[in-house]
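so ive been stuck on this for like two days lol. basically i have the seq below and the ligand is flavin mononucleotide, smiles is in there too. i just want the complex predicted, nothing fancy, no docking runs or whatever. if the output looks off dont worry ill sanity check it later, just need somthing to start from for the group meeting slides
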Amino acid sequence: MRQHDDLYSYEPAKGHGLPHDPLNSMVGPRPIGWISSRGRDGSVNLAPYSFFNLFNYRPPIVGFCSTSAKDSLRNAQETGVFVWNLATRDLAEQMNATSAPVPYGTNEFEAAGLTQRLAVHIDVPRVAESPVHFECRVTDIHRLRRHDGTDVDSWLVMGEAVAIHIARHLIVDGVFDTFGAGIILRGGGPSAYAAITPETRFDMNRPGAPR
Ligand SMILES: Cc1cc2nc3c(=O)[nH]c(=O)nc-3n(C[C@H](O)[C@H](O)[C@H](O)COP(=O)(O)O)c2cc1C
């Protein structure tokens, strides 16, 4: 198998030296944390976060990272809850619209023409057009820091999914249809995305895992 000897190397603290930062093109495509939340004043918020992932099975824990103090972080701090909504290909434009920099208190559901459906266990609206919702209670808000211990203006918000809702048609023979759900992922650069389709699937079993 080919090995790579001609390497472009850089130390991120000194800059990457390329026209576009390769960082999030390489760690990618990334799932999109489409996060709805509510502030202490009752205002509703919706925004996408691709520094997002699932970190644990039981209990299910998801997290997103706010790379400055943004409204979703503020709301998570204020009310301790948020909803993760699955972003799909048919909702891509609306998802993108909800990333617009707007003043605190602006309801991005309304700005993007999306329908609010109140969650069952927490007082946060879900995106009714999205086929999957995780109702989350905040477990940790962790400020990121450099290796020398100095603070960074980024916060990782972790939440336990206390309730999960799945559009029933996406449960096929008892299995969630990842490749039929139209899931979209964020690539790098200013505009790249990937859509998960059945052709992109391949299967592999873990060594020693039961078949
Ligand atoms: C696909 C996508 C992914 C994004 N990922 C992040 C992210 O991981 N962290 C972040 O701070 N901003 C991210 N942004 C930008 C935020 O969505 C944007 O700053 C938004 O206005 C934040 O909204 P809020 O202040 O209402 O929470 C992303 C934008 C898009 C379109």
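The mean pLDDT is 97. The radius of gyration is 19 Å.
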